[in-house]
């Protein structure tokens, strides 16, 4: 029992030091860099919050978020700007890096605004991907078709 109390005291002291070092109360916004190969959407811009789709589950990023590296799955990234505006982008895949200093780097393979998506084109793309899967004869072709279905389904959902 005495060992447990000593361990708790040690842990709580280090936790308090870590909280002070990270400055949880001092980070009013995030610094976001959000880019795709053909464009930079945000370049060290101050934002309130970011919601991202991840293979480990969708999650929100707030100031002083625990440092994280995650893979983005196809879906909608929502950026809550400091002026109250909300912008939504569809990403096909990519990575997100959350640093200890409340900087976030979001690198997408493709990123487009949700309002520029065409629901009928997304449904047509999904049908094509499903046809490719049914006619695929190799494991590689099946895997590529399955990726196409996953992206297309996320596109259709984003259009709703």
Overview of the molecule:
The chain is of the alpha+beta class and 160 residues long. The chain folds into two domains: 27-115, ATP Synthase, domain 1 (Sandwich), CATH 2.60.15.10; 117-159, Single alpha-helices involved in coiled-coils or other helix-helix interfaces (Up-down Bundle). The chain has three helices and nine strands. The protein has helices at 2-22, 119-135, 139-159; strands at 30-36, 39-52, 59-61, 68-72, 75-81, 86-91, 94-98, 103-108, 111-113. Strands 1, 2, 3, 4, 5, 6, 7, 8 and 9 form a nine-stranded mixed β-sheet that branches. Helix 2 runs antiparallel to helix 3 (139-159). It is elongated, with a radius of gyration of 20 Å. The termini are far apart. The model is unreliable at 3-8 and 10-26 (pLDDT under 50).
Order of helices and strands: HEEEEEEEEEHH
Low-confidence stretches: 3-8, 10-26
- What is the 3D form? elongated
CATH class of the largest domain: Mainly Beta
Structural class: alpha+beta
Give me the CATH fold name of the largest domain: ATP Synthase, domain 1
Question: Could you provide a short overview of the structure?
Answer:
The chain has 160 residues and is of the alpha+beta class. The protein has 2 domains: 27-115, ATP Synthase, domain 1 (Sandwich), CATH 2.60.15.10; 117-159, Single alpha-helices involved in coiled-coils or other helix-helix interfaces, CATH 1.20.5.
